[in-house]
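My main concern about presentation is that the manuscript never shows what a single data entry looks like. An entry of this sort, consisting of the sequence and the corresponding backbone structure tokens, reads as follows:
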Amino acid sequence: MSGGPSREHNGALLEVRDLVKYFPVRKGVLARAAGYVRAVDGVSFSVPRGKTLSLVGESGSGKTTAGRVILRLLEPTSGQIFFDGRDISGVRGRALRALRKQMQIIFQDPYGSLNPRMTVYSMLSEALSIHRIAPRAEQRARAEELLRLVGLPPDSADRYPNEFSGGQRQRIGIARALAVEPALIVADEPVSALDVSIQAQILNLMEDLQEKLGLTYLFIGHNLSVVRHISDYVAVMYLGRIVERGAVDDIFERPVHPYTKALLSAAPEPDTKRKRERIILEGDTPSPINPPSGCPFHTRCPEAQPSCSQTPQHLVEITPGHWAACHIHAPDPAAPQR
């Protein structure tokens, strides 16, 4: 697949096509390659400008790796990444540095992501200097403006990270990401290390900032309640692949893929009048070094048929904008169209 962005995704700020990231597994004294970990194995999606798409799945599904490859913190093995209509899969040097201004990350760990030896002002002014956002004479005012934007007092600029709570540190991390005036932010489980009450505050802040600044989010998470709160679109990953994607209401109210159904069955139901039957998955997630043939989920799928181990699965449009990689639930192409 080559050329510009597909017609389906015209106008998207971010589009990913057939993205692959394999890590070599080396053995022996000579450290020869003995296989590959298929961390991301042919992922495609797009994120409309000003919206939020969440990547969800179990630990090891490849969602964090996908986010880091998109940011070019890791090199893709193959595939294409379009940002604002431009293929950035192979950019290097100055072009990559310029791209960093447009694409930023909020890390999961608010304690480990901030340099304990730097004041908040030093961290913010460093970003402003590297990317030439503001001259030195204006950096103090800009830093204080950023702190106000994320709900912290301006005098926070002179303090060190160990003087703040976890929620406050994450606000500082958000301010640092905003310092370079990005268009896209990859939020890698940004509230999973925080107390539930603080999680809501940070999520509300992110939504307010999105509306105020026109930000686009790629949100990575496993907490489905959080994902439903913040998302416009959701892509469900399993063993390096997307098995279902669509609008948030389609995924949560009308799930199609058995893996999506199993994930949702384990999530707390906010409506106490609704009861979900818990779906217990048998066995462990297969190794990404040697994934199963056919549908990668068939070894644990409660609905699996013999053909599932033989037939490669591809995303098929179930209803407009709602895609799933499950031939059991795919619409019959011979059926009359309404």
Q: What stands out?
A: The longest strand covers residues 32-48. Confidence is low (pLDDT under 50) at residues 1-9, 334-338.
